[in-house]
Amino acid sequence: MEHVNLVHNIPFFSIFIAMFSGIITPLVKNGKIAHKIHMIMVLIVMIMSAILLMNVVKNGESFTFMMGHFPAPWGNELRAGPLEALMALTFSVVMFLTVTGGIEFIYHDVVPEKQSFYFIMMNAIFGGMLSLIYTNDIFTAYVFIEIITIASCALIMAKGTAQAMVGTTHYLVISLLGSGLVLLGICILYSITGHLLFPQIKESVMQLFQSGEYSFPLLVVTGFMFIGIAIKSALFPFHSMLPGAYQSAVPTSSGILSGLVLKSYIILGIKLIYSVFSVDVMLNLKILDILFVFGLAGMVMGSVYAMRETRMKRMLAYSSVAQIGYIYMGIGMASRIGMVAACFHILAHAVTKSMLFLCCGSMVETCGNKEQIYYLRGAGLRNPLAGIGFTVGALSMVGVPLFVGFISKLYFATASIYAPGKMAAVLIVLGISMILNALYFLPSVIAIWTPVKKEGEEAKKAVISPAFGVCIVLFILINIGMGIFYRPFISIIEMGISLLQ
Amino acid sequence: MSHLLINYYEAASVILFGIGFMNLLLQNNLIKKFIGLNIMDTAVYLFLAAKGYIFGRVAPILTNGVIDADYYINPVPAGLVLTGIVVSVSVTAFSLALVQRLYKHYGTLNMDEIMKLSREREGE
Lengths: 501, 124
What we know:
Order of helices and strands of chain B: HHHHH
Number of helices of chain B: 5
Largest interface: A-B, 28 and 37 residues
Radius of gyration of chain B: 21 Å
Helix content of chain B: over 70%
Distance between the termini of chain B: 58 Å
CATH topology of chain B: Helix Hairpins
Largest sheet of chain A: 2 strands, antiparallel
Strand content of chain A: under 5%
Number of strands of chain B: 0
Number of strands of chain A: 2
Oligomer: heterodimer
Shape of chain A: globular
Structural class of chain B: mainly alpha
């Protein structure tokens, strides 16, 4: 037996304990104990991911981990490098803060007998996201895509209202269309390459590409897989599932789904671009250009839809559509720095949008469960912490300096210089989109800080739980911290992407 | 064109995939929608099974002592089909449970009517 590095077991172990805690949670009938199990599990994964990140950054390495006893062309593999470790760390931090901060919503909105089931889904979704980050096998990726789909639908319908069920049906149908396309793409890819592991597929794809053989099936495969991933991550023309689902779900679920789940598909897409199809092939097949155009359209249209919306959660959902557009624009620029900007925006949006959904949920509760922005006037004064959190998140999404959202927009603009022929389009659309962002976020920020005088009704202060307070403060600190000390994140992402190739 | 005739299993499975996909996307009746989902998934399994079978070879189970690899087919596509079937069964079970609850609540299986009713109730 050769030298076994303990750190190399971390990816497998993280996925394993996430799934294992999902399996043992049904034995617990009490929601509070289920929450404790979930919290401990996420904490362990967080610590392990931090250790993994420190190790891979120190050694500047990425490694593959063999699952089972069969070596490369046959067995199953996990792969981890700086990018994967950073994503796993951020996901576990955001997951921990969102669920801990939003625990009151879960206890309030989900019937007590079903609270432990809610945490099964949370554990499954977390395990699925970690698998999509770490996996090196394309069929494993498909299986976990489906697990995440079912678990996220269960999270949306956890509230049990009729509206939530309608939202879930919509979400389920659109997601299933996406995963059907991904599955067919994987099968055709397997039939023309004969492999399921990323490095081996890449070798075959390069051979096919150079010999010009099967060029049409290759185009069809990339088309199916990336349109499938785009549908699942709600890129602009496929966004119709988001608003209804996020509006009707528990705010905690909306935060997790918007902040993390959509991103996990995009991370899989980035891994596919670099480790399976390679940037040259993708550029030659024009798939990246298509993603670029859809991304630009999403940046503008998402914001336009958000401006027309009067209900706050739906506004945040449309804002997610716009932010997903930013990420796809960065990917579509096909340069290293564009990809770095896209990856950084994944982190930025994850830490911001989860906070926005939590704060929005808390303010809506303060104002008697009315979602229209009109009724939320003065909510910031009655519930100051949620108001401050919402303001910070909104400023970050608009792209005000000192907040994390500014850095990613700065890098998108810088990246456009290195994207010949796309610079003008990027800069113009970036400008328009940021103005539109300001146009819908600032009125809602002003609205929540506007005092309202109503006769008869006493403006009672909101009671917020200490957990919510601590988590929002931490979210705000992370937002500002990442906005000021962004260099280490950028250099880790750069190292990760160069190791991915 | 001749490729389609030679690979008629694959051609049929892609046509079936299209039928299932459009049913899932456009069908208004929820039960039919999820039947469309099943047609779509089954088409992919037909594709995999057809690709995995080579004429004249047998399943890789050692019974008569032949250890030459040319005698057997690749077992991986069959494994993928099995995994896929498990996934599609669980997705179908989930969707049917959802449809049942929607029907209990709204008394109809038509997606358009359900959306209409849901909007009306929200407006109240």
